[in-house]
Give the backbone structure.
Amino acid sequence: MIEGTGSLNVESINSERTSRMVLIIGIFSIVMLFAGLSSAYVISSYGELWVNLSLPTGFYLSTVVILLSSLTIHLAVKAANADNDAQAKILLLITMILGLGFGISQYFGWQEMVGTGSFVSGHVDNLDGVYGEDYTITFQGQELVAENGEYYFPNDQLREKPLSNEIAIFNNSTSSYMYALSFMHLLHVAGGLIFLFAVYMFGQFGRSKTINKMRLRLGATYWHFVDGLWLYLFLFLLLFH
């Protein structure tokens, strides 16, 4: 009987190791994806024209929400390891609610961007925010000055050569990257939510009526990863112009 139990424990450990290895490979591929997108963003910023956008308030809220969810899932794993299944389920449910809150706040962030004329695929002449607060424009290596609806080089003291028509042909690639990065990240958060939901439902309605600790640990590892990934993206977009 003891030997059988030991054998089951070894199989469980091996299964978790295999699953964790698969997860690590998946995480590595996601890292490569976002490294490529980040690199493309940096390279594009050195082009002839670049729009520096302020991050929407929704993205700040997203950051707070997702960091809280990282705490709750950590506590859920801790409760499960202590065989406090009821508390683990509650904390896992809170984590999923916070995950949904993250998605909602992301949507509000996109709505803010649309409100200031930053579309998924738009042009510079679509910009409709407050210059200097919502955005600035760098053209040919110089940050432009905005006056009376026109843009000028800073050394054009007499404002003799407006640049609005000249720069209107350029795409607002900054907003395109911001939508792409945040949307791709949200898709990976959605994948994590689906997995956590499955763990919760099996724990609530499965044969044992208890949370599967191994699956919860794997889900928590992935969830901490997507949380950290968003923190990186947020700081990247906040600090790099």
